[in-house]
Design goal:
The protein is mainly alpha-helical. It has 5 helices and no strands. The chain has one domain: Retrovirus capsid C-terminal domain (Non-ribosomal Peptide Synthetase Peptidyl Carrier Protein, Chain A, Orthogonal Bundle), CATH 1.10.1200. It comes from Danionella cerebrum.
């Protein structure tokens, strides 16, 4: 009856839910690109979430490398991507710091959209 169907659905979700969720987060990370008006911090925070949830069973060093690769791939400005690559960061947080410095020095920081007011 309906109760046994709900029991079966619950059992399947418990059994396969994490796998589906991990796969979803891996796909999100693979497709994630920084939008032109997005801060580097917000972009990096998303990637950190995807790495943590999509690759939970991976060793920390591998997760760092995956996050770093996704960060570089997701930067829309080629000059910024090249600058960060040349500095050879070993972690996502180091890449973020390098990119933020470069944006500030090179004047590449995104400008807020009209209608978005910074206080």
């Amino acid at each position: 009856g309906p109760a046994s169907l709900q029991t079966l659905i619950g059992a399947l979700q418990r059994r396969f839910g994490k796998r589906v969720s991990a796969e979803h987060h891996r796909n999100e990370m693979a497709e994630r690109r920084r939008s032109p008006d997005e801060s580097l911090g917000a972009f990096t925070a998303d990637l950190e979430l995807y790495v943590r949830k999509g690759y939970a069973s991976f060793p920390p060093q591998e997760r760092q490398l995956l996050g770093l690769q996704a960060f570089l791939k997701g930067l829309h400005l080629e000059a910024l991507r090249q600058h960060v690559r040349l500095r050879m960061p070993t972690s996502l947080s180091e890449a973020l710091q390098i990119a933020e410095q470069a944006e500030e020095i090179l004047g590449l920081a995104p400008t807020p959209s009209p209608g978005v007011h910074c206080l």
